[in-house]
Write a structure and sequence with these properties.
Radius of gyration: 20 Å
Strand order of the largest sheet: 2-1-3-4-5-6
Oligomer: single chain
Low-confidence stretches: none
Number of helices: 4
Shape: elongated
CATH topology of the largest domain: Dna Ligase, domain 1
Helix content: 25-40%
Number of strands: 6
C-alpha cells in the first residue's frame, strides 16, 4: 500500500512540475495576459477614445461590441522580463463602465499598455492598435 501511495505522489509531482514548465515557457514566448479584467456580464457599457484620429468618444452598449472590446485586451499580452520605457502618451483608451458603478480603464500605444496605473511592455507591438482601428475606427481613418 505504501508503494502505491509513493508512486501516485511521485506521478502527481511530475505532472505539476511539467505543467509549471509548460506554462512558464508559454508565458516567456507569448507574453502574460492582463489579470483582473472585468467579466463580460459585469460590463454595462464601454467608452473608447482615440484622440489622434477623432475627438469623438465611441460609446458602446451592445453585447456584441462590448464583447469585442473586452476580447481586444487579449492582444495586450506583456513581456514580463522587459520594463516599459515608453515616454509616449497612450493612443487608445478603453474604459469599461461596470454595472456596480465603477470604471476600469486600459490605455495603450504601440509599445506600452497601462493597466491599474502601471505600465507594461507589450509583447506583440502594434497589434492592439491595428485591430482596434479596424474594428472601431475604420470609418474615421478613411475620412481623414
Amino acid at each position: 500500500m505504501n508503494k502505491i501511495v509513493k508512486g501516485i505522489l511521485r506521478f502527481l509531482i511530475e505532472v505539476i512540475v511539467i505543467t509549471v514548465l509548460i506554462v512558464g515557457i508559454h508565458i516567456f514566448m507569448n507574453g502574460m495576459y492582463l489579470l483582473g479584467l472585468p467579466d463580460l456580464e459585469d460590463i454595462q457599457s464601454v467608452s473608447i477614445s482615440y484622440p489622434s484620429v477623432t475627438d469623438d468618444v465611441k460609446e458602446i452598449s451592445s453585447y456584441e461590441d462590448i464583447e469585442s472590446a473586452l476580447k481586444l485586451t487579449g492582444f495586450l499580452k506583456y513581456d514580463i522580463f522587459k520594463k516599459a520605457t515608453s515616454e509616449e502618451a497612450p493612443l487608445i483608451t478603453i474604459t469599461y463602465h461596470l454595472k456596480d458603478g465603477t470604471d476600469k480603464t486600459i490605455s495603450a500605444n504601440n509599445t506600452t499598455v497601462w493597466w491599474n496605473n502601471k505600465p507594461y511592455a507589450i509583447k506583440d507591438k502594434e497589434m492592439f492598435i491595428n485591430i482596434t482601428e479596424g474594428i472601431f475606427f475604420l470609418e474615421d481613418l478613411q475620412a481623414r
